[in-house]
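Justification of resources, computational component.

The compute hours requested in this renewal are based largely on the per-chain cost of generating structure records like the one below. Each record pairs the submitted sequence with a full structure-token output. That output is archived, and it is also reused by downstream analysis tasks.
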Amino acid sequence: MFEFIKPIRFSGQDYNTLKQEYLQKKGLFEDESFPATVDSLACWKKICFVCTFC
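The structure output for this chain reads:
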């Protein structure tokens, strides 16, 4: 009934490989094309009802 579809890798990134690498490093992964900044979050001033930092 359901068919498994292999996910498409973004920029050649493999989740399991990245996970193992950063677990071994005891570090956090930050994607260069999607940096962890306030601007990257789905929080805009007009509809900011969930975020407390806006």
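The mean pLDDT is 77. The longest helix spans residues 15-25.
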